[in-house]
Amino acid sequence: MKKLLLINPWIYDFTAYDLWSKPLGLLYIASFLRQYGFDVQLIDCMERPLSQTKHKKYGVGPYRREIIEKPAVLEHIPRHYARYGIPEKTFIQQLQQHSKADAVLMTSIMTYWYPGVQHAAELVRKYLPNTPLILGGIYATLLPQHARMHIQPDYLITGPGELKTIRLLSDIWNLNISEQELPKYLDDYPYPAFDLLNNLQYLIIMTERGCPYDCSFCAQKKIAMPYTRRNPERVIEEFKDRYRTFQLRDFAFYDDALFIAKDRHIQPILESLIRTAMPLRLHSPNGLFAKYVDYELASLMYRSGFKTIRLSFETSNESRRADMYSKVTNDDMINAVAHLKQAGFKAKDIEAYVLMGLPGQQISEVIASVLFVHNLGVQVRLASFSPIHDTREFDKAVQAGLISADIDPLLTNKTIFPLSGNDFSYESFRKIRTFTQILNEAAQRELSLFTDPLLGADIRKIVSQI
To answer: Domains in the chain: how many in total?
Structure first.
C-alpha cells in the first residue's frame, strides 16, 4: 500500500484569521485516495492549538502567529509580517514521523502566500529527500510557471485536483485504475476527510462547484470545474452524516453561487434541514447573491439556523458594477435586507461586502458604498481588492500602469492595497477601515447614524468640513 503525505502549508502575511478556513480541496483528494487503497496522512500547518479553539464563537478564531523578516519587496509596508500556523519545529517533527511516505501532495491557496508553500517544500526536500513532491491548488493553477520556478515541484496539477491526482499517481506507479472506475458526477464524490484534522470546531459543506457568473475580479472560471450542482437529497445526507460523525453544530457553505436556481436547490435543502431538527448554525463566508433573496428564502434561512450572512455587493456605483458584471443592483440590496430583517435577522447577523482599491476607483466611491450599506441598517464587510492574475481587473490595472504584468505575487496582497493610485494611499485606506468599524459598531446597536433627519444632516455637514 502506497503511503501519501498531504500538506496544507503555512500562511505568510500581515494578517490572517480562521474564518471557516479549511483546505477543502485537499480533504476531498484525501477521500479519493483512500477509496483507491492509498494510506493517507495529513500535516495541517494551519491547525489551531486546542487552547485557541475553545470558547470561540462559531469555532472561528486567531491562528498562532510568529513575526518573521519581511521580504525585501514589502519593506515599505509599516506592519509586521508573520508566519501563521504551527511552529516550524512541530512541522519538522511531523515530517520525520512520515519519513516512509512514497509521495507528498501539497496544496496552495492565495498566490501571495507562496512563501509559506516555498518554505514547506524546502523542508520536505531536506527531511524527505527523494520523495516526489506534487503541488496543486489555487496558486499552482493561476501561476504555474511561477510555481515551477519558485517551488520546483516534481509534478504540478492545475484546476480541480481529485481526478487529476488519481490519474497522475496511476501513471507514476503504473497502477491498475481505469477511467471507468472514476466518478462521473459530484454526487459520486466521497465526503471530504475531515477526520484527518485535529481540534475540529466546525465543518465545511459544498453543495455545488463553480459559478455561472464571470465577474471581472474573480478567477473562479480558472480554478474550478464548470458550474455543477449536487442533488439536494445527497447534500442532506452529507449534513446528517457529518453531524452524526463529528457532533458539531457549525457548518459553513463554501459555494460561490449558493442561491442559483434557489427553488430547485437551496430552498429544498433548507426545508429538509428544518425537518431534521438538527440544531445547526449555518454560515456563508462567501458572498451571497442578494437579488435572489425574497421573503420565502429569507424565512427559510432564519428557520434553518443561518447565523452569518454575507451579501455580495462590491459597490453602489451602478456604472462600475455594470463594467464588473456584478450580480446585484442597489434595489436588490435594499429588498434583500428588508426581507432578511422581516424574517427575523438583526444587523449583527448581516454583512455586505464592499470592495476598495479597484483600478480607477476614487475614495468617494468607497465611502458612498459604505454609507449606502450602513443606511440599510447592516454591517459593512470591507474587502481590499487584490489584482488576481488572469482576471479582467488585473488586465485593467496593467493597462493603467498601476502594476506590471510580471508583478511579484507578494505585491498583489490585498492587505497592502497594491493599487494605491489617484487619491488613495495606505493611510487613506486605514482611515476608511476605521470609519467603517465605527459605523458597524453603531449598526450592531441598531443605530443608523446618517438616516436620522436631524442627526444625520449634522454629521454629514461636519464630515464634509474635515
So the answer is: 2
Tens-place pLDDT, residues 5-17: 999 999 999 999 9
Q: Are 457 and 397 in contact (CB under 8 A)?
A: no
Q: How many CA atoms lie within 13 A of 321 on its CB side?
A: 18
Residue 189 has a pLDDT of: 94
- Provide CB contacts within 8 A for 27, sequence distance 6+: 192, 193, 194, 196, 197
Q: For 22-36, 51-65, 126-140, 357-371, which range has the lowest pLDDT when averaged over its residues?
A: 51-65
Question: What's the CATH code of the domain at 58?
Answer: 3.40.50.280
Q: Model confidence over 217-247: pLDDT tens digits?
A: 888 878 888 899 999 999 999 999 999 999 9
Q: Is residue 431 domain-shared with residue 292, that is, in the same domain? A: yes
- 168 and 243 share one domain: no
Q: Are residues 213 and 337 in the same domain?
A: yes
How far is it, in rounded angstroms, from Cα 172 to Cα 278?
A: 45
CA angle 316, 21, 43 (to 5 degrees): 155
Contact 297, 267 (CB under 8 A): yes
Task: Give the domain-ending residue among 126, 151, 181.
Answer: 181
Q: Are 248 and 202 in contact (CB under 8 A)?
A: yes
Rounded-to-integer distance, Cα 178 and Cα 165, Å: 13
> Dihedrals φ, ψ of 455, to 5°?
-60, -45
Residue 398 exposed, middle or buried by CB count within 10 Å (0-12, 13-18, 19+) = middle
Nearest to 351 by CA among 306, 385, 320: 306
Grid coordinates representing 57? 464563537
Instruction: Give Cβ neighbours of residue 379 (< 8 Å, ≥ 6 apart).
Output: 347, 348, 350, 351, 352, 373, 440, 443, 444
Q: Which domain holds residue 114?
A: 3-181
* Claim to verify: residue 146 and residue 45 sit in the same structural domain: yes
Beta strand spans in 232-329 (E)? 250-253, 281-283, 288-289, 306-314
Please indicate, yes or no, whether residues 33 and 129 belong to a single structural domain of this protein.
Answer: yes
For residue 396, what are the contacts with CB-CB under 8 A and spacing of at least 6? Answer: 216, 359, 360
Structural domain contains residue 77: yes
Which residue would you say has higher pLDDT here, 431 or 69? Answer: 69
Burial 113-137 (b: 16+ CB within 10 A, else e): bbbbbbbbbeebeebbeebbbbbbb
Asked whether residue 192 is domain-assigned, the answer is: no
- The answer on 460 and 314 residing in a single domain is yes
